[in-house]
Amino acid sequence: MKTKFTNKLLLSSIVVSSMMIVNIAAAGILKVSDTDFNAGAGQITFSEFAVNTVNPFYTPTDYSGDISDPDVSFAGWFNGQMLSLNAAIDCPGAAASACIVGSPTGALGLDASSTDTFITTDGANPTSPVLSGTPEYNGGIAILFSSDQFGVGFDGGFFDAIGSTAITAFARDGSLIGSVANTVTGIEFLGLVTDDQTASIAGVFLDLVGAEPAGFAIDNIRFGGVDDIDVTGIPEPSTLLLLVPTLLGLRLLRKSK
């Protein structure tokens, strides 16, 4: 009886470890901070254009970038996405106007029929002006780069709830790379890089994933290639560390039999 119970316990541990490996290996992104972006990374502060500019379009000249840097454009969401028809189920507690569902289809592109983004002032943000979706502070924001980036991030907020808002990265073919949600209230830098250190982020998207009383806007976008972001202090996914107890468990299970 004891042997059978031990085998069952070992098998459960193996399954849990294996599931954790799959989840981590499939994550696709690593979280980064604003200090990980160096001086060579692109930066957009939204002070480059006038307040009330709708769906601003940036060339490298507009944000003092190099000629090899990307154009950056904005809209409410990507082709293939749409406003939820049942926000109470898809985004419990979130404003329906910022509950975007669906996955991008085909080559990643901004949906011309989506709601607008626009530059506005925000008394809750110390570096105003900011970029908001429609309606103000309660609409989705999609960002498209003309060339793939290794990392992207921006100041999001003002958040009144933890885990209410997420930045999601997509590849050029519209496939999901990964997502990071806010972990504090107030203004928080939401940044990510690809975990394989390739420049494969074609665009990112910000919308509500839960209740957020204050709404949200973005500011101080940072982006760049591998040379523009310092990842030396960023922990790698612990797949190998999790694999060790899994293999050990299999060996013990085989011996017990």
| Helix content estimate | 10-25%
Strand content: 25-35%
What is the CA-atom radius of gyration, in angstroms? Answer: 21 Å
Name the assembly state.
Answer: single chain
Sheet with most strands: strand arrangement: 3-4-9-14-11-12
Number of helices: 3
> What structural class do helix, strand and pairing data support?
alpha+beta
CATH architecture of the largest domain: Sandwich
Q: Please, what is the average pLDDT?
A: 83
Give a short synopsis of this structure.
By secondary structure, the chain is α+β, with helices and mostly antiparallel strands.
Would you mind describing this structure in some detail?
The structure is a single chain. The protein is of the alpha+beta class and 257 residues long. It has 2 domains: 1-27 and 237-257; 32-236, Jelly Rolls, CATH 2.60.120. Helices cover 18% and strands 30% of the residues. The chain has helices at residues 2-25, 87-90, 239-256; strands at residues 29-32, 42-44, 57-58, 72-75, 82-83, 100-101, 118-120, 130-132, 141-149, 151-159, 165-170, 176-181, 186-194, 201-208, 217-224. The radius of gyration is 21 Å and the shape is globular. It starts with a helix and ends with a helix.
